Amino acid sequence: SARSRVLATPELLEAILAHLPQRDLLLTQQVSHLFQSAITTSPRLQHLLFFRASPASTSRKWALNPMLRERFLPWFVTPTPGTPAPGYSAIEMLDGLDSASSREAFLRAEASWRRMLIVQPPPQTLRVVRFGNHQREDSAEEARVSFEEKGAGGVAMGVVYDITESFLRSR
User: Fold this and answer.
1) What residues pair up with 119 in beta bridges, in sequence order?
2) Of 4, 79, 94, 135, which sits with the fewest C-beta atoms within 10 Å of its C-beta?
């Protein structure tokens, strides 16, 4: 049939899938092996899902990953004077999962959100600064992580989540 021929043509299937909203595109991988293969092997679709870095451009404009912004809002809020930065309770509540099994599935090492880039084009370096105050003594610790040679393509949400959780748990 005509439908079968269209779906069997990689370029046409990619063009169709590229019109889906980001969340639908991500979930479409569960529909069939054909769709999963098309999505995981297409640089264009991987870019739309924030799994692959966009080509370098002269534009300095960044595009935030809308799925991550919606799900991990505390990481996308800029604290203002008089308003504290989100703490560990924000992380504990962010997923809104009721059962232990749902939470375990969400936090598993293979979860797709962990590989998603936070912005396009992605930064190649993550700078982490940890501020502290102990006995009226201010301190700051700084670390930089480069993603240029790791093949990751840029800073992914899993790394940022793990660093944040580690810092907040050590308080």
Assistant:
1) 64
2) 135
Judge whether 163 and 118 are in contact, CB under 8 Å: no
Own/partner long-range contacts of 73-81 (Cβ < 8 Å, ≥24 apart): 75/118, 75/157, 75/160, 75/161, 75/164
Residue type, 146: S
d(CA 115, CA 153): 10
What is the per-residue pLDDT across 133-162, written as a single tens digit (0 to 9) for each? 777 777 777 778 887 765 657 889 998 888
The pLDDT confidence band at residue 115, using thresholds 50, 70 and 90, is: very high
Phi, psi of 32 (to 5 degrees): -160, 160
Q: Which amino acid is at 40?
A: T
Using an 8 Å Cβ cutoff, are 62 and 121 in contact?
yes
Domain ranges (residues) in the chain: 1-49, 53-169
Cβ-based neighbour number of residue 110 at 10 Å: 7
Cβ–Cβ < 8 Å for 116, 150: no
Note the pLDDT of residue 162. Answer: 86
